[in-house]
Design brief:
about 15% helix, outer membrane lipoprotein receptor (LolB), chain A, alpha+beta, globular, about 220 residues, single chain
Length: about 220
């Protein structure tokens, strides 16, 4: 799973707002941070649509995910082919059953590569990483659109727009734009807040016969 996709997926965590009147931009950051701090686990289903602007190509993927603070996650891609991304807080695994190949690396360097990922794994606050560009309300008044830009240049995250449903106070769509105007849209469904997720869900052992790839030590 490419880093741009990983970044987009992780950005889904914690971008939640409590239902209220349309907030001023100065209020949004604190409210999102507070909502994220109250979230210990999250699970649901996702549909991802990634568009490469220069090539005019669009790719779709769907599956389910499980997240647990501070840095545990499990993304089970079901289509167009099975793939698995698992992190236990220390080690990150990306596994392709069809290729019988697994790539492993430490979680820390991967997450530290982007200020966006810092917040979403509990390593930083949203106010440290992002500036709120705008907060808008849809015509029906049942959703908020929050546009965010990273304070530190990040090629993978040039602009982020989240849509928050008023009724559930959950993000049901996230649009990520990178520095090359490529877009990744993530739509979420069947979201469950704070389900009981055992740590064993976030462990991975390569099946026999798997080709394990480890990046060279620095």
């Amino acid at each position: 799973m490419p880093m741009r996709t990983l970044c987009a997926l992780l950005l889904a965590v914690g971008l939640l707002l409590s239902a209220a009147a349309p907030p001023a931009a100065t209020d949004v950051v604190g409210r999102i941070e507070a909502r994220y701090r109250a979230l210990s686990t999250l699970q649901g289903r996702y549909l991802q649509t990634a568009t490469l602007q220069a090539a005019g190509q669009t790719e779709r993927a769907a599956g389910r995910f499980f997240l647990k603070r501070p840095a545990m996650m499990r993304w089970e891609q079901e289509s167009p082919e099975p793939r698995l991304l698992v992190a236990d807080g220390t080690t990150l695994w990306s596994y392709s059953p069809l290729d019988r190949q697994a790539v492993t690396q430490p979680v820390g360097p991967t997450l530290q590569a982007s200020p966006s990922l810092h917040f979403l794994t509990g390593m930083a606050t949203l106010g440290t990483a992002f500036t709120v560009a705008s907060v808008l309300e849809d015509a029906a008044g049942d959703a908020l659109f929050v546009s965010l830009t990273p304070k530190t240049p990040d090629p993978a995250v040039y602009r982020l727009i989240v849509r928050v449903r008023r009724q559930t106070a959950l993000v049901d769509r996230l649009t990520l734009v990178d520095a090359y105007e490529n877009t990744t849209v993530l739509e979420f469904s069947d979201l469950r807040e704070n389900p009981r997720l055992p740590d064993s869900l976030f462990t991975f052992r390569p099946p026999p016969g798997t080709d394990v790839i480890r990046p060279p030590s620095p």
